[in-house]
Amino acid sequence: ISGYSLVVQARDSGTPPLSSSVTVNVDISDVNDNSPVFTPANYTAVIQENKPVGTSILQLVVTDKDSFHNGPPFTFTILTGNEEEEFTLDPHGVLRSAVIFKHMVSTEYVLCVQAKDSGKPQQASHTYVQVRVIEESIHKPTAIPLEIFIVTMEDDFPGGVIGKIHATDQDVYDVLTYTLKSEQKSLFKVNSHDGKIIALGGLDNGKYVLNVSVSDGRFQVPIDVVVHVEQLLQEMLQNTVTIRFENVSPEDFVGLHMHGFRRTLRNAVLSQKQDSLHIISIQPVAGSSQLDMLFAVQMHSGGFYKPAYLIQKLTNARRHLENVIRISAILEKNCSGLDCQEQHCEQSLSIDSHSLMTYSTARISFVCPRFYRNVRCMC
C-alpha cells in the first residue's frame, strides 16, 4: 500500500461539544527490497546458421515489484558464456547475434544473464539462456493461391481485411514474412507477420492481380492473389431472389460450394450466355443454421430479369441445384411472421455498404455488404 488518507477529529468537553476535522495523508516510501524477476525463470532460443549479424534471437522480460524509481530501466549484462563475444544484449533486453553462426562449429551456447534495477542500492537477479544453432532453411515456403471477391455499392467501399494468405514451411523454426510490391500499396496492404490482406477505401470496379511474396529469410516464393471488385447497381436490389440453404456456414459455402453452385445456377437461370449472374450477398439467418444467398440476373441488353421469372426457372431446376447443396427455400420476398397473404406483402431491401462481412478460406474469400429486409402488409 503506497499511502493512507486519514480524517482525524478533535472534540472538546464543552456543552455543546464542538469539533473540527483535518485530513492527514501518510505516504509510504518505497525501499528497494525486491530483485528484478525474469519471466520465464530461464530461456531457450534457436538461431539458424548463416543469419546476418544483428539478428534478434530473444526478448528478455523483466518485472520488479518495487515502485517505478526502484524498478526499470534495467541494466542487462551477460556474465558468462559469451567469452568469444558471439552475442550482444541491448538496453531493452534484446539478445542479438554478433557473429554469423555455423552449425558445424557449435550447436549450443549457455549464457548467464544478469538484470539490475535502478534502485539504491541496486538489486540484481540472473537467468540462464540456452541458445541452439540449427541448420539454415532447406525447404522453400509453400503458399496457396488466393482469389478474393468483393461486392460493394457504387464507389462506396470502406476498406478493411479482405482475406488471408495461407503459407507453410517444413522447416520448423522458419519465420515467414509477407511482402507486397510497392507500386500496389496505394490500394492494398499485406500484414508482414500473418499474411492478412487489407484493401484501402474507394476501390474501383475491376480485377486486381497482387504481386505478393512470402519469405523464410532465405527463399522467397511468389503467391497468386487475384481480387475481383464488383459494384452493385441500385436497380439490382429491386430484382433480387433469395436462395436459402440448410445446415451450412458461410465459410463452408464459400470454400466448398460457391464455385460449383454458381456454375449450376448460371446454367439454370441464364437465358443467353451474355447474361450476367450477380451474387450480391450471403448472410446467416439469425437463430438458425440456415444461410441466405441474394442474387440478381442482368440481361445482355442491360435490364434485369424479374424475380417471378427467376423463381420459375429455379423451381424447374431445383433438383439439379440440390446435387450441389441442399436448398431450404427459394424466396422472392420473406414475409414469414406477418399475418397477411403473400400477394399482399411488400418487401423493401436495403444494403449497408459500410458493414462488410468477410468470409475467408484458404483459397477463396468473399466480401459482401450486410443486407436488411423490411416487410409490411398491404391489405
TrEMBL record:
Could you tell me where this protein is found in the cell?
Answer: Membrane
The terms describing its cellular component in GO are: plasma membrane
The record's annotation in CDD domains points to: Cadherin_repeat (cd11304)
Report domain Cadherin positions: 4-38, 39-143, 154-245
The protein's superkingdom reads Eukaryota
GO biological process, alphabetically ordered: homophilic cell adhesion via plasma membrane adhesion molecules
* Gene Ontology MF annotations: calcium ion binding
Instruction: List the InterPro entries.
Output: Cadherin-like_dom, Cadherin-like_sf, Cadherin_CS
Keywords in UniProt for this one?
A: Calcium, Membrane, Repeat, Transmembrane, Transmembrane helix
The protein's name: FAT3 protein
Source species of the chain: Cinclus mexicanus (American dipper)
